[in-house]
Amino acid sequence: MSFKPISEIGEFGLIERLSRIAAPTLKNKPALVEGIGDDCAVYRTGGTSVQVSTTDLLVEQVHFDLLTTPMHHLGSKAISVNVSDVCAMNALPEYALISIAVPKNLPVEMVEQLYAGMAHAASRYGLAIAGGDTSSSPSGLVISVTMTGQAPEERLAYRKGARPGEMVCVSGTLGGSAAGLKLLMRERSIMIDLLRNNETYDKDVMAELQEYSEAIRCHLLPEARIDMVRFFQEAGIVPTAMIDVSDGLTADLRHICRRSGVGAHIDEGRIPILAQARTIADEFQDDAVAWALGGGEDYQLLFTLPKERYDDIAGNREISVIGEILPEEEGMLLTDIFGMTIDLEESAGGFDHFGEQ
Question: Which residue, 170, 165, 177, is CA-closest to 216?
């Protein structure tokens, strides 16, 4: 019997196959509004609002490295990345269930710091940690967070819904997380080399990288854009399509395009890139634009709006209009600063858990 390694189909190929297997379980569930395929599942529980639910894993040596990640920061990030999924539905978070698998020799104080970071973030976002589970782990720390939120059904934003002629918008800046990770990986390499030579690493990583604190913060302490959800509420805006930028601008725009049945054109010169990311890219002789397009983990909101709503967002300095939605047959395109047009469909773009890294 021959077997196909997951690496041949990639993360999204695997999700597609598993979705087909799960599809029959969705039948005869009239309360379910949206299942697999968006940032959250959506279901009705009665009343005027609907519930949204999401879940996320953080795995040691896949999503984080304890050599460069303080436990308090890790706890905060575990909450923020789930809140970001809820925000991507234009909803607000309510409750979280947290499960952890912990090596038996991990100090209790480190686990307490992890939960202190979670509790701090939960308080900041106005949600409650309502339960969870614990287990031992033979090979590293694993964190699973399941989160629920709510919103009036008519205010929900899905990945589907974008239409040709609409604006492509993004909040905040991009590329910061990839820049911060690059710095931390360099520092990790220095630590490991010293340990191999039986030397002591006696520097405080955060102090050592203080001049790059903004990029480091983008990676270790991302902020879910709950402020944007509140802005949309106050301005009476409902994005026609929305997603959070977790896999990278290219990959996440592709999700919107495929779910909406459209194409898109974005202008490189309009992409808001963290200034510090450009400085760090120069230092590493790398490309900050590539980090913005494919680095991921920026947790900004990528969304579409009719052009008639431009005046409603024009005064918000946290929103950049970076392009336009096209008919599907025109594809996904990027015009660079030299006027060259690049086909983004031919670019891998984004992080794939089962691809070659």
Answer: 177
